[in-house]
Amino acid sequence: MVDLQVENVKKMKKNKRKVESEENANVSPKKNKKEKSILKAKNDNDGGEKKSLKFNETVKVREISKAPKKGKKDKLEQKVKDKKVLKMKKDKKGGEKLQPFVKLDKQETRDKQKKEKAERKAKKQQQEVFDIGVQAKKIWEEVRKEDCKEEKKIKLTTELHSLVKGNIKKIIFAHDTVRVVECLMAMGSQEIKDALYVELKDDIIEMAKSKYANFFVQKLLRYGSKDQKDAVMKAMTGKTAKLMKHKTAGVVVELAFNDFANASQRNSMLQEFLGPEFILFKEPEVRTVEELIAKHPEKKAEIVKNLGANVEVLIQKGCYNHSLVHTVLHNYLSVVDGKARADCIESLRDSLIHIIHSKDGAMAALYCLWHGSTKDRKSIVKSLKTFVEKTACEEYGHMVLMAIFDTVDDTKLVGKAIIGELCENFVKIIQNKFGLRVVKYLVAGRDKTYTMPDAITIMAKGDGNEHSKKDPAVRRKELAEAASGPILKWLGERLQAGLYDPPSTINFTCILNHLPHSEQLSKVWGLLAEEASKPFIEGDGTPNIIENTASNMLLKKIILKDKEREKLGVETFSKVLLSTVDTDGVEAWLGCNRGAFVLVYCWETGIEEVQQLVRDKIKFLEKILRKQKHKGASILIEKLG
Fold first, then answer.
1. What does R_g of the chain's alpha carbons equal in angstroms?
2. I need a surface site. Which of 211, 250, 269, 344 has the fewest CB within 10 A?
3. How far lies 546's CA from each of 35, 245, 589, in Å?
4. Rounded to 10 degrees, what is the CA torsion of 407, 413, 418, 420?
5. What is the rounded distance in angstroms from the CA atom of residue 258 to the CA atom of residue 324?
6. DSSP secondary-structure letter at 274?
7. 310: how many CB neighbours lie within 10 A of its CB?
8. Packing angle of the helix pair 573-580, 549-560 (nearest 10 deg)
């Protein structure tokens, strides 16, 4: 019985599997997205001991049409359309009415942004402080107007101070409200200024470091009382070196050092860079680090080490715009030597253009030129490109160009980079008193007639440096040759007009006596000789260069320079002059004292050929000469024997 039941269960399972297989065979296959169909076929053997799959090779493919690309304008229009949907104003649950999207114009968008910004700011600040700031700015707008009357201004500043009093620390670090406090410091009464100082005196250093509050500290230095200024200086005592390395605070320290500190305070501020000892124990009477080391030679190593560490940080941060930094650099380069000095010069060589406008900055640049290697000097010269005219016309910067003429052996580089640019702007440069010094130094060197003794003393410090190998006379000659062409061209164009102007005649004398001999120089001599040879009548109102004091002195100096020209074996001016002048011209010369002295100067050159020309010119005018009663004539007769 059990066996029959088991057998019946097996038959039922077998029939069930058979029915399922037949149903699966009749079901059509699913299609994918591209409608590619793979048709399945039944096995020919329905009795199916073994099933297999057969594939139909026919594949149906549907082409997808590519949508055209949209341009920027189409995309923008679509974006606007998409935004024109109904929005809830606050929350869907709130049951608010739906409002359509409205496109704003530029002004409306800007107003909306301002409103949102004000709301965000109000959230950050206390509502009370925010309201004070808004009211204060409204009053400030009235006070700062140029047409605001004095009485109204006093009333408004008092009202403004009463509004912000007690909350100044909360509003002074913001970019807008700090201006309100600045205005009170600049325009308020002394009582208001004192009240502001009392409220903020403990936060001077913090404000000096602030991006916006530092302007109030600057106003305190400019408009505060003497005691308040001293308090600011005292607050910075011991922190000067640290503050100078701060981008914002450095401006405040520079203002205090440059505009308001006295000599003792400046010396003390400098000494704070020398290490912890000098921060605590200063010697205000000592001006430079060099003097301090001479007074305490045993402390030299420590002083130089501490100063060098501070200098390195200042260079890395690029703090070149402050005169205090220039002073520190100058003092460091004057006492350091060896590898430390070489490293410092290498770090500075491309940045000297930023510091040479101040006295200490220019001196630091001179030390870099005197002790820098050939590579350093080349970089310094190249860094001045396009700034030569500006540098030549600066009170202290012009000395850097003078030092370049003294030290750099590569005269081709100097001729192209420095002298070439000088000559391009020669008219502007020679009309400036500092530019004129550069031109005279280039042409005449350390001639005391044309160069200040103080400048010669400074330039002499660089003599004998280890990197200048070329003979100074050779270097000077090569540089003068590079400059002579443009200078003589300028001189030829302005010679006649400048002969009656005393300052111009001094410049002409300098150029004509020191430029190397050339064909162009001979042409200028010819022009001068023609002007001197023109006949004139003594006492006549017509100007002439023989009787004019300045131009007569020019002739004298050029003629007496012929002694040196004769030794060099080059053409002399006295020969050109005597060969050009005719009998009428000589007669006019003899008729006046200064004219006779011109012939005396020619005789005193001691050149036989020139003396013979003098005899020949006077040979037929001896009677006229003896009739003259002026001193020049008597000296000339005596010379001729």
1. 46
2. 211
3. 115, 64, 7
4. 140
5. 8
6. G
7. 20
8. 120
The strand pairing partners of 40, in sequence order, are: 55
Quick check: helix, strand or coil at residue 55? Answer: strand
Quick check: 257 and 269 in contact, CB under 8 A? yes
The answer to whether residues 599 and 560 touch, using CB atoms and an 8 Å cutoff, is: no
Dihedral angle of Cα 272, 277, 283, 289, to the nearest 10 degrees: -60
Q: Do residues 475 and 414 touch, judged by C-beta distance below 8 A?
A: no
* Token couple for 547: 């009787």
Residues 6+ apart with CB under 8 A from 534: 544, 585
Q: Model's pTM, two decimal places?
A: 0.75
For 587-596, what is each residue's pLDDT tens digit?
A: 889 888 999 9
If you search the block for the tokens 């997205």, which residue do you land on? Answer: 33
Amino acid at 116: E
- 616: nearest Cα among 575, 555, 566: 575
Distance from C-alpha of 418 to C-alpha of 428, rounded to nearest angstrom: 15
Three state DSSP letters for 70-95: CCHHHHHHHHHHHHCCCECCCCHHHC
Give the sign of the dihedral formed by CA 170, CA 176, CA 179, CA 180. negative
Give 99's strand partners.
87
Q: First vs last Cα of the chain: how many Å apart? A: 179
Helix, coil or strand: residue 62: coil
